[in-house]
Amino acid sequence: MNIKKTNQIKASPQIRIPRDLYTELLFRDFTGTQSFLLMHIARYQFGFNKLKCCLCNRTELCYTGLDKSAVSKGIKFLVDSCVLLEGEESFEINTQIDKWLIPIKSTADRSRFESIETYHILKQAELINNQQKNDL
Length: 136
Description:
7% strand; disordered N terminus; 3 strands
């Protein structure tokens, strides 16, 4: 089978979601369906380095295994809560986090999370530094 090479947009092997946005996605009180929809939209928004997730229609989100009514309700709620911005054929995660109307989880401990995150960042820097010393 011959495969023609075309000018295709390729997804990055890593999705670079802004750290503050990703942290908010963890801390906000989303349902499982809402989280699933946000991860799917983030995949096509940030994974392709686009400003928006372009969809021909909402039924494309049903291919992820969610039923049509769950997708419609989830999208409507996220748009009404200012988490998603909706265009004619696109969605984008609103990066103005202060506009989101979703409460923070009552069990969330942001200061503890940030101290753990800082620890891991410093540990990673230490590992890289040690690796560079060993390479010399």
